[in-house]
UniProtKB/TrEMBL annotation:
Record protein name field: Phosphotransferase system, mannose/fructose/N-acetylgalactosamine-specific component IIB
Subcellular location: Cytoplasm
GO biological process per UniProt: phosphoenolpyruvate-dependent sugar phosphotransferase system
Taxonomy, superkingdom: Bacteria
A Pfam family that the UniProt record links to this protein: PTSIIB_sorb
GO molecular function, one term: protein-N(PI)-phosphohistidine-sugar phosphotransferase activity
Domain named PTS EIIB type-4: residues: 1-164
Annotated keywords: Cytoplasm, Kinase, Phosphotransferase system, Sugar transport, Transferase, Transport
Annotated source species: Desulfomonile tiedjei (strain ATCC 49306 / DSM 6799 / DCB-1)
Organism placement in taxonomy: Bacteria, Pseudomonadati, Thermodesulfobacteriota, Desulfomonilia, Desulfomonilales
Broad class of where this protein is predominantly found: cytoplasm
Length: 164
């Protein structure tokens, strides 16, 4: 079954995801790809406890989540993938995870180089990663909640690839 949403949000699991994105995408599994959380069982338990029992939660490293998604891509399950930064989203794409849209939720940066919305402020590394993701053919959009109008990343960054 398709990946129904790949979202970059530094808060990972929170109200917008649980009350907005999970119901609107009808996600049955929630994958959190995060190297720091992979070995932090206490944080995993805290995050998992907020998710409804009807949604399976898998928290692991970026590499292991990519491997798992590649092995189980034939299962008839609706999956949402969360990462907390654009670099991890780019890693997933480079590791072979197939997605053609990327949702930007909440991102902040200590050394901001681009403020794209009230909730998306990028540092240089994040901006470069997103530009690389666009070059991979992924449509990147800014949208905090499903009922909010989606804003195309390339329109606000003037980064449309020439082949489009």
């Amino acid at each position: 079954m398709p990946i129904v949403l790949v979202r970059v949000d530094e808060r990972l699991i929170h109200g917008q995801v649980l009350e907005g994105w999970v119901p609107s995408t009808r996600a049955e599994e929630l994958f959190i790809a995060n190297d720091a959380l992979a070995d932090d069982l206490i944080q995993q338990e805290i995050l998992s406890s907020a998710v409804p029992f009807s949604v399976k939660v898998v928290i692991d490293s970026v590499d292991r989540i990519a491997s798992l998604l590649m092995r189980e891509n034939e299962r008839d399950v609706r999956r949402m993938i969360l990462v907390d930064n654009p670099l991890d989203a780019l890693r997933l794409k480079k590791l072979g995870v197939n997605f053609d849209r990327l949702n930007l939720g909440n991102l902040t940066a200590n050394s901001a180089v681009a403020s794209l919305s009230r909730s998306v402020i990028l540092g240089n590394d994040s901006l470069r990663a997103l530009l690389n993701i666009v070059e991979e053919g992924v449509r990147v959009h800014i949208q905090s909640v499903p009922f909010e109008k989606s804003v195309d990343f390339c329109e606000v960054c003037d980064c449309l690839p020439e082949e489009r």
